[in-house]
Amino acid sequence: MPPLSLRARNLRDVPSLALQSPLAPTSICPRCLIRIEARGVRSSRRTFSSTAAVSSAWAAAVSKLQNTVSDILPNRPPLPGGSNVTIDPLKLVGRELKFLNKNIRQLLGSGHPLLDTVAKYYTQSEGKHVRPLLVLLMSQATAFASKSQRDTPNPTPTATSIDTPISSPSVLYDSNPDHPASALLANLNQTSSTDTDPTILPSQRRLAEIVELIHTASLLHDDVIDTSTTRRSAPSANIEFGNKMAVLAGDFLLGRASVALARLRDPEVVELLATVIANLVEGEFMQLKNTASDEKHPRWSEDTITYYLQKTYLKSASLISKSCRAAALLGECAPNVVEAAYAYGRNLGLAFQLVDDMLDYTVSGTELGKPAGADLELGLATAPLLFAWRARPELGELVGRRFKEEGDVQRARDLVIQSNGIEQTRALAQEYADKAIDSIKDFPEGEAKKGLEEMCVKVMKRRK
User: Fold this and answer.
1) How far apart are CA 337 and CA 334, in angstroms?
2) Is 415 a domain residue?
3) Which residue among 75, 98, 121, 190 is least crowded, i.e. fewest CB within 10 A of its CB?
4) What's the pTM value of the predicted model, to 2 decimals?
């Protein structure tokens, strides 16, 4: 199907754009979601217990996480109408996140010392962990949602099976000193928390780790492509170890993620996450051009924004949307719940990247933890500039030559600041965030659902 074109609206009514192409077949607009009827509802097979009191050990870990992401996920203001909900998403899954980096580092162990060091480099500092956080929240929020028996060839993964090789260890020759096959059973207690949330399945917990592995691999590759110098307020891996080592480490992370994914023994989930990896590459190729035709003297058109959003979905929103869908699938949720989880992730993922593109114009490099204004330096025309271009046609010449001439970057930046491109970007991001909240309106009421809603607010207010 051809992409829906952008409808002309005034500045206060930013367009809702569809994303329809062979690369991203599902429309961004929730109204266009395929309706799938539940094939039978059954009760959950899980046994749930009341939440235990927060121990000092994991409370300290949560406190550290809160300090790390305080600027990324700031406190929300009171809601309209006098409601003052104070749900902290980090506290809801704090004990799970406490073990995230430890488990990831165990999955990444290599018998080659240098590879082991480079592969674990970005796990040494606390990242945002937004993607695994969303997976864990979605798992909690759908734990009591309607269920449906899935036609899968394997039983529900257990804490043991997700660490058990499918092939013989002697065939795999998987040299991982942090998780040797010969001592597999002895190591199982080391790769998961013994004080886990009963509303989150072992497979969903492992999914959160896989998602972070894929995201970290993309960072390693992106930093090489973008010739980045810093990441998380430290030298980027390509600077610290060189381009070749950074690329190989990213490949290694994708390999380890693929092994962990296969051991979930769920073909549909494997297909989803494998598609994410392909989407990341497809999006990167789309980013090589600012417009579909890559003209030397382009003119603004509705297709310009459509192309940008399609690229954004592939590079950023695909991982969030498909991982949220995978979490619901692993929880054996009914089809309508799975579709709602997918819509939430897709819309929030687009909102997240739109805000990220906006911050490149509004926040300093010190706050971002990476160089500010990098997009223009790389020749990239993102949402703020694309919206400004509609009112300032002279930007077309700069876009066509990818801001390569002296003074182009500063001139483009000045034109964006003088226009309403940033405000329009914020409005479009808010539209997607609102759609994300609306998509989960039928989820069972509870803290996890409120946590997902809170994430939409915090994404809109983040500063990193």
Assistant:
1) 5
2) yes
3) 75
4) 0.78
